[in-house]
Design brief:
Largest sheet: 7 strands, mixed
CATH architecture of the largest domain: Orthogonal Bundle
Shape: globular
Number of helices: 24
Strand content: 5-15%
Strand order of the largest sheet: 3-4-5-2-1-8-9
Helix content: 40-55%
CATH topology of the largest domain: Hypothetical protein af1432
CATH class of the largest domain: Mainly Alpha
């Protein structure tokens, strides 16, 4: 069944005054000016665009001279960023592209005076619509508005040629499928050639994946990617979960369970990645014996695998470490009846800032089991979350920095020089406070330090100091 939606042709209300002014300036100087790309597409879908692009027959040097504040962002390819009234607008000269020898960039471009020729080089029909805001006229030679109404995603012209020109378009195809929730054109889908993606930089693949994973329900698109073989090229560790059974407790194999968890996770990038990768190490840790199917250590191995995957995709160290931690501790051992002391130690181990994210990964994991969760099961999850929040909102101490004494106090009390021994004392004190939060008072901690003074480590440090 084909689902249709009404395409609105009244996009005037979305156009910022600064964008209108740029078009007016170009027109007043005898040049053409059209709105193009995602801004037109999203406006027709009834959504307010975030970015605006203008296509013109004015040469880049002319654009630079017409506007007082510009940035030559891609002047080789005809693009100048015009800054006006706090908005950055990319103004690009009509062009036709030369031969793509690296499956990513044309060797050369030729500037043109034809908007139709410019639209012909674009990737998908829904992105190949131009709009003249002065004449209120659309230029739509490839039926982009019709495809918007049909929720159909297809290339401009021959899909084999489009993907051969720029291999990233294959991943953009799936990204638009997920974010716009469009169905793929059969011939376009059949043109996917997975090995071509090897010509694309990790950074560009990363950027497209990030957008795809934040779609409302990305699992269906990732499954289609898997069926074409593209997922195996980009995320082989995830694709390998296909057919890896998990026993009677799970309805799905590892791949389908991971995709269900992905859909269930909140749309924050670190949570979506953690949900997708939380069981990525199961294929390599799976054993089956008389007691059933086991995945011993898949959380520990998953942490290593996660770092390797996200490092390969050039994600930031901060996001990589965050996701790796969530994968490592998604099997956390506490439960709704755990003691307060156990909860405090857990919070200390994983970091206060990660606790609720881990609970979200657990929630997504439960939903992805594919079986109706019992009322009691969800009650336990809710109770545990409430207790964790209560403990974190209390005056409990979870880090050395929360102690009522400092490193200077330790050095003065135990006559220690700066160094690892000071940190060891603070960690020892923190362990005591985790067991009994009432100890976190300056006088009590100073007194408690005296019992630590006779430990071999401190005695050795003191002896070295006096030698």
């Amino acid at each position: 069944m084909t689902f249709m939606f009404r395409v609105s042709h009244d996009i005037q209300e979305h156009i910022p005054q600064a964008v209108r002014a740029i078009c007016d300036t170009l027109k007043d100087n005898g040049y053409q000016a059209y709105l193009v790309g995602g801004a037109v597409r999203d406006s027709l879908r009834g959504e307010a665009p975030e970015d605006w692009d203008v296509a013109t027959d004015a040469l880049p040097t002319t654009v630079l001279s017409l506007f007082p504040k510009t940035i030559p962002t891609g002047i080789k390819y005809g693009t100048v960023t015009v800054m006006l009234r706090g908005i950055a607008v990319e103004v690009t000269t009509f062009r036709s592209d030369g031969i793509y020898r690296d499956a990513r960039h044309p060797e050369d471009v030729s500037f043109s005076t034809s908007i139709a020729e410019d639209l012909q080089r674009r990737d998908f029909t829904i992105n190949a619509i131009a709009y003249d805001p002065e004449a209120r006229k659309f230029i739509d030679p490839f039926g982009g508005r019709r495809d918007l109404g049909r929720r159909l995603l297809r290339t401009v012209g021959d899909p084999q040629e489009r993907f051969a020109e720029d291999a990233l378009r294959m991943l953009r195809f799936f990204r638009f499928m997920a974010t716009l929730r469009f169905r793929p054109h059969r011939r376009t889908l059949a043109a996917i050639d997975p090995p071509r993606i090897r010509n694309v930089s990790s950074e560009r693949i990363r950027d497209e994946l990030s957008k795809l994973l934040l779609a409302k329900l990305p699992s269906k698109t990732l499954l289609t990617m898997h069926e074409t073989g593209l997922l195996q090229e980009i995320l082989p560790e995830v694709a390998q979960g296909d057919g890896i059974t998990q026993g009677s407790f799970h309805r799905f194999d590892v791949l389908h369970h991971s995709l269900q968890a992905l859909d269930s996770a909140l749309p924050r990038l670190q949570l979506r990645w953690a949900a997708l990768l939380h069981d990525a190490a199961k294929p390599m840790t799976r054993i089956e014996d008389a007691d059933g199917i086991h995945f011993y250590g898949h959380d520990v191995e998953g942490e290593k695998l996660t770092r390797a995957i996200l490092t390969r995709l050039r994600y930031s160290r901060e996001l990589t470490e965050k996701v790796a931690l969530l994968v490592r501790w998604h099997m956390f051992p506490i439960h709704s009846r755990s003691t307060d002391k156990a909860l405090r130690r857990f919070i200390r181990k994983v970091g206060k800032e990660n606790v609720l994210d881990l609970m979200e990964i657990r929630r997504a994991d439960i939903l992805a089991l594919g079986r109706q969760a019992t009322w009691a099961g969800w009650t336990h999850w809710e109770t545990l979350r409430e207790r964790l929040v209560e403990v974190m909102d209390s005056d409990a101490t979870f880090a050395v920095s929360d102690l009522a004494v400092s490193g200077h106090d330790v050095m003065a009390a135990l006559d220690l020089p700066p160094g690892p021994a000071v940190g060891a004392v603070l960690e020892w004190l923190l362990e005591k406070v985790l067991d009994d939060p009432q100890l976190n008072q300056r006088t009590r901690l100073l007194k408690l330090m005296q019992s630590y003074e006779k430990t071999p480590l401190v005695q050795k440090r003191q002896e070295n100091t006096y030698q």
